[in-house]
Amino acid sequence: MAVGTVAYFSPFVPAEWIAAHGFEPWRVVPGGAGLRGSQARAAPPEHGSGTEIVPDPWHPAAAGVCPFAHDFLMEVMGSGATAVIFASTCDQMRRMAEFAMGGREGRLPTLLMHVPATWQTAAAQEFYAAELRRLSRFLVELGGEKPSHERLVEAMLAYDLRRGDLSRDRKGATGTASELSHGRSLTVAAQIACIGMRVALVGGPLRQQDGWILQHIRKHGGEVVLDASETGERCLPAVYQEAAVREDPLRELVRAYFRSIPDVFRRPDTLMQEYLRREIERRRVQGVLLIRCVWCDLWHAQVGRLKESLGVPMVEIDLGQDDRDLQRIQTRIDALLDMAR
Amino acid sequence: MKDTSHIPAQISLRQWEGRYRSLREAGLREASYGGPLQRHFAAGDYRLEQLRFDNSAAALRLWNFLLSETERLFAAKRAGKKIIATMKDLGTVPILAYALPETVAFYPDGTWWIPCVMRQSTRDLAIADAMGIDETFCPVRAMLGAFETNQHFPPPDLLVCSVGATCDDFSAIAQRLESRRHAIHWWEIPSRQGAREEEDVMFVTSELRRIAEKLAEVTGYELTNERLREAIAQANKVREKLNQLRQLVFTAPKAPLPALEMLIAEMLAIHYCSDRGETLAVLAELVDEVQVRIEMGEGCLPADAVRVFWVNPVADLRVMNLLEECGGRLCGSDFMFCHALDAIPTDVLPMEALARMALADPMVGPAGERARRIVRDAKLFGAQAVIVSRIPGASHCATEGTVIREVVSREAGLSVLEIEVPPVSDGVRAGLRTRLEALMETVRRKRA
Ligand code: SF4
Ligand code: SF4
What we know:
The complex is a heterodimer. Chain A is an alpha/beta fold. Chain A is built from eleven helices and eight strands. In chain A, helix 2 runs parallel beside helix 3 (91-102). In chain A, 54% of the residues are buried. At the A-B interface, helix 3, helix 4 and helix 10 of A face strand 5, helix 9, strand 6, helix 10 and helix 17 of B. One iron/sulfur cluster is lined by residues 66, 68-69, 90, 92-93, 204-205, 293, 296, 298-299 of chain A.
């Protein structure tokens, strides 16, 4: 029986580390049904029926706030979770953590984990390991138990197996694999055989209500063969090496997460650029749909860069706080499918 | 006719022509970069025509020093000095660079003001646009254009950029820059959290050592503790002088120096405008001028001007003038680098001292901590209101104003106004004026 539920979103927060301390890890993808489970939207919502922003005591959803970071905060604060972990992988999330810690209307035990943007030095890797140890102390203070070597190894291998099973279920045919790392499937079933235009989703996270985008692509003759969004397979940790897990589990956690996940905030961002080039070529992608939240500078700045470097047609869509722009997004997706044809 | 030329006043660029002539006739001696301000306008700094400047020789020197930085950087390059572009961290890496002989540091971030100063007459923003970095980013995006055109600074020998607990704008823009074949030495500043203080200091110390190694590789000079101690001593002299100036100006019964000149003077502390020795001389002359004015009971604004604490630099310098036109005066500031005004400790190893300073950056910690420092300083300088100036597109501006407003209202009981200032604010000037005047009116009513 779990001691409680620990909410987080960053792919750099290892679910198995939380689970090994006796908590249920809950990767919050906003727009779902809270702690009860996820709800993907299968069709474009009607105009004006978008997610309702919870009345917000901390911030009036002012211009400039990333809707994902904002919705994450809102969903977590109203969820009844035991605690929440933020990662400082972007300024917006870092600042949302401050609201969670010091909101007028109450607070939730909150840890802001610093995940270094630099990743090539031993010092940065050690910093990440130290942050995992700090997370451990935080969880122990909340009633968790510091895991023994055996328990940690067991949790890591179990999660690795689960991720592997889910990947195998996809039969190597990619599809959208959001939440694989954490054992919850966010979006759509795997695509077994690709018959349509081969599309890659690249960019930031999708919220639950954005699932219709995938359906729209399929309905109009496209097939998502690579989900390199932040809720997709790009942000999975590397497969564990069992011997390394048994020898030094923390070091293997650092390797699989910190040294392997190719994310947009890393400096330099070569891991991500190499990943995208490699996977786009390997999966014979014909068009890239770049998804970004409005006010997300990190992904916005990638648009020009990726257009120059990827060598396949690319269209960007920005996901806002309401559904007013649905028509525009649909038109852009259709334009991508036309270009790729 | 009575000679009023010594009386502090704010004058236009055109009026500076006559003022300059009379100062010269009276025997004004200038530094090598001296001369009439008009020449900067002729060279493309068109915004100067709309600004109002302090009429002292000290202010003339300040402006000439600021506006001649490009020439100074190109001259240093021609003289074979190593040019280090230090990006994002404000105030730390230049101290390392200036510790080494034949080395000059500057902030490409300074191009932030180019769209304003040159009234968008350059191609810098258009180049940034073409790279996909549009106006939804902070005006620092002008830096991308500056690196392509090489008009504002020569190609640097090394680019050093801090990441980690920084704004998303800069991290994203610097990465875009690197994608254009400008190799960057990245270093990390973690988000400041009390619980991790000593570990953070050790980590940042090791990051600064990495920079020192890189600097040694580029310049051929080793960064010894002795060199660094001397560089810290020089930095502390500049900070001490600046703090003296702030204390005098912010607490004087009548403002002895306008807000615009104070903003420029504070900026010198973070990178010395590419000449450390001259920075000290410029600040010293300003202090002397201010002391004389205070002794004579003179100021450039009425004694009843509303005392305002200003948060964040303004993308359009003209708004500092507007504050005064609306009846305010500057009494305290947090232009985002107040950590670069504090004395650097000399009782610890020099690299550790710099790490502590870097971690004290208000922007790497919670906005609540920044707000508490604002409260402390606002009380110290007797500020009667706080203005938070939003920077268009800046990731931190989305939320920090809310936090600052709440803390300042609760802990200091001051009125807080949040405004957004674009690089050229002429289009929103009427609205800004109305809001500033309303704030002054509110404070006056409270005062009465
Ligand atoms: S979408 Fe961008 S701004 Fe929003 S939380 Fe993710 S990285 Fe941060
Ligand atoms: S967003 Fe703010 S901190 Fe970042 S470069 Fe712009 S002004 Fe500076």
